[in-house]
Design goal:
Helix content: 25-40%
Structural class: alpha+beta
Organism: Ornithinimicrobium tianjinense
Radius of gyration: 14 Å
Number of helices: 2
Order of helices and strands: EEEEHH
Pfam families: Polyketide_cyc2
InterPro entries: Polyketide_cyclase/dehydratase (IPR019587), START-like_dom_sf (IPR023393)
Shape: globular
Protein name: Polyketide cyclase / dehydrase and lipid transport
């Protein structure tokens, strides 16, 4: 995939449960994952809606050149991703 800064990343899926969970570790093409993990979790509710949780864990990040960018990923940025997903689903 191409990310917002124009660089290409390979995404290594490490968790998958159909309709419930998707998690991946990004890496530079041809390289092992650097240690950060992105995850989406979906929890269906009785009222027909779905609770969505989006997390970013960089606690195992090993590439010093990625630390500054990792630190800039805020809860507000993750919430905007959830909001964009909701807008797509609800349109």
């Amino acid at each position: 995939m191409t990310i917002t800064n124009g660089k290409t990343r390979d995404n290594h899926v490490v968790e998958f449960e159909e309709g419930r969970r998707l998690a991946w570790k990004p890496a530079s093409p041809g390289e092992p994952p650097a240690g950060h993990l992105w995850r989406w979790e979906l929890e269906p509710r009785d009222d027909g809606t779905t609770t969505v949780t989006h997390t970013y864990d960089w606690s195992k990040l090993t590439d010093p050149s990625r630390m500054a960018r990792a630190r800039t990923t805020t809860p507000e940025m993750l919430q905007r991703s959830v909001d964009r997903l909701a807008a797509r689903v609800e349109s």
